[in-house]
């Protein structure tokens, strides 16, 4: 099995579980599953709605036993589109593409 250096590094830093947004078809191969299976919901998504993009993996077996709750991404992830456009002006122009499989 291929070694996943990022997850090993997370363990070294004391992380016991990892949650993030991703595609189960890709990350499932590394042992990730739907976070809902651990009782963890993604913020602002009502129960029963599609949350299949929100994934989780325990790095320490049993760490999430009995855990329930809601995950909210860090505030720094929420950026204004105008700020992004202004930031991008500092780089050489590249055409923005919308490709199959993109979430948005």
**Number of helical runs?**
3
What is the residue-averaged pLDDT? 90
How many DSSP-defined strands?
5
Radius of gyration: 17 Å
Low-confidence stretches: none
Looking at the chains present, what oligomeric state does this protein adopt? single chain
What is the structural class? alpha+beta
Largest sheet: 3 strands, antiparallel
Distance between the termini: 32 Å
Q: Which term fits the overall shape?
A: globular
Tell me the strand order in the biggest sheet: 1-4-2
Give the fraction of residues assigned to helices: 10-25%
How big a fraction of the residues is strand?
15-25%
Task: Please characterize this protein's 3D structure.
The protein has 104 residues and is α+β, with helices and mostly antiparallel strands. The chain is built from 3 helices and 5 strands, in the order H-E-H-E-E-E-E-H. It has helices spanning 5-12, 24-27, 81-88; strands at residues 17-21, 33-34, 40-42, 54-58, 69-71. A 3-stranded antiparallel beta sheet has the order 1-4-2, with no helix packed on it. The protein has a two-stranded parallel sheet with strand order 3-5. The longest helix is centred in the first third of the chain and has 8 residues, at 5-12. It starts with a helix and ends in a 16-residue tail after the last helix. The mean pLDDT is 90.
């Amino acid at each position: 099995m291929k070694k996943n250096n990022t997850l090993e590094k997370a363990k070294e830093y004391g992380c016991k579980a990892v949650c993030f947004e991703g595609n189960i078809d890709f990350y499932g191969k590394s042992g990730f599953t739907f976070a809902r299976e651990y009782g963890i919901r993604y913020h602002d998504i009502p129960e029963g709605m599609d949350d299949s993009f929100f994934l989780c993996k325990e790095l320490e077996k049993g760490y999430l036993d009995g855990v329930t709750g809601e995950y909210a991404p860090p505030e720094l992830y929420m950026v204004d589109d105008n700020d992004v456009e202004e930031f991008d002006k500092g780089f050489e122009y590249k055409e923005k593409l919308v490709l199959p499989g993109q979430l948005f």
